[in-house]
Amino acid sequence: MRTLGIETSCDETAVAVLERDGSVTFSLISSQAAAHAPYLGVVPELAARHHLEALPRLLAEAHRQSDLGSIELVAVTRGPGLIGSLLVGTCFASAYAWGRSLPIVGVDHLEAHLVSPFLNLGGEAARAVPDPTISLVVSGGHSSYFLLAGESVTPLNRTRDDAAGEVFDKVAAALGLGYPGGPVVDRLADLGDARAFTFSSPRIKDPSGALDFSFSGLKTMTIRSAQERLTLPLADPGRPPQVVLDLLASFRRTIVDWLLAPLDELVARHRPAVVAASGGVAANRELRERLTGWGARTGTEVLLPPLALTTDNAAMIARAGQLRAATGQLDDPLSLRAYPRATWKRRKDSDR
Ligand code: KG4
Ligand code: ZN
């Protein structure tokens, strides 16, 4: 179905149009980063208000650039995320669908990241998800490998504490580098020596968690290493000293080392046709390069979303909606509910 996608789970307002074959013909993202930057993190109340202002503007732009008259389905993020922001998106999408007598489908934000590596920009159709696929989702809220097999999505590991994106954001905030931290740390890390600092790996005692992640110790070690050498926040964050560049390069290398560490064992266990990665941290240059290099070395196909569809966007929401609708999972615009917490387990059955 030709689909209008709407995403408002955090601080990006996004609207997209996908053709029946999943090709992306319109995708617009309005970032609120500047509004939240002074607070070094997302302020939920501000985010909801910005979505309320931005959505009609984005929809009007979609109307100018695309034929909304032939839309057959509306897809919207139901959760997880900031509840005020989700309510704005779900109410807006429900009203639009109801007003135009279109079917609506609510999708899970995580489910949408999972399909994003199979989208293309430039008019190409979306790829089917090969069976089985191993998919790493790394964002501000998730750091997990998943196994996609048939209809099921099974987490293969998890983070015991912070998500990888959260750690990028917190390190950047402590140094005074602003919000969001991932892109700025990524850029500065290119200028540093990644071997300058070494960090001890976390010890997870529970044997069942052998492949789990833990990033909060790395966050603390990185911030402490900076505090021992400099006064924080940095006086001139536009021109950090070399020691900070070295620290950030070492921090980024370590996160990527740890993110890739479970891969060989997971691949040996599950023999996937494809390894994919998605979520904001999958925009990280070192992660992209090293994962692609791992694929070339091991002869495994590695798929990453186009950069523009790596951080939050509505094309992935529309695609997840198309796939749900194809299996008959539609919602009622008069009773579609948003949910703030991760509920991926409810994906197939009891969530309606
Ligand atoms: O997927 P996303 O846009 O939103 C969530 O679902 O959380 O991910 C946002 C996260 C933020 O923590 C941001 O700092 C991080 O992705 N991020 C990056 C990069 N670009 C965005 N982290 C590392 N390197 C990047 N280039
Ligand atoms: Zn996301």
Describe the structure.
With 352 residues, the chain is of the alpha/beta class. The protein has two domains: 3-130 and 308-351, ATPase, nucleotide binding domain (Nucleotidyltransferase, domain 5), CATH 3.30.420; 133-303, Nucleotidyltransferase, domain 5, CATH 3.30.420.40. Helices cover 39% and strands 16% of the residues. The chain has eleven helices and ten strands. The strands form two sheets. A five-stranded mixed beta sheet has the order 3-2-1-4-5, with helices on both faces. Strands 8-7-6-9-10 form a five-stranded mixed beta sheet, with helices on both faces. Helix 3 links the parallel strand 4 (73-79) and strand 5. Helix 4 (109-115) crosses helix 11 (315-326), helix 6 (181-189) packs across helix 8 (242-260) and helix 8 (242-260) crosses helix 10. It is globular. The two termini are 21 Å apart. Residues 346-352 have low confidence and may be disordered. 5'-O-[(R)-(carboxyoxy)(hydroxy)phosphoryl]adenosine binds at residues 10, 139-141, 165, 168-169, 180-183, 186, 279-281, 283-284, 311-312.
Strand content: 15-25%
* CATH classification, class level of the largest domain: Alpha Beta
- The percentage helix is 25-40%
How many structural units, i.e. domains?
2
Mean pLDDT: 94
| Lateral arrangement of strands in the main beta sheet | 3-2-1-4-5
What's this model, at a glance?
The protein is an alpha/beta fold and 352 residues long. Helix content is 39%, strand content 16%.
Topology at a glance:
Elements: E1 3-7, E2 12-18, E3 24-31, H1 33-36, H2 44-65, E4 73-79, H3 83-99, E5 104-108, H4 109-115, E6 133-138, E7 143-149, E8 152-155, H5 164-175, H6 181-189, H7 216-229, H8 242-260, H9 263-270, E9 274-278, H10 285-298, E10 301-303, H11 315-326
Helix pairs in contact: 2-3, 4-11, 5-6, 5-7, 6-8, 7-8, 8-10
Residues 109, 113, 139, 279, 312 line the site of zinc ion.
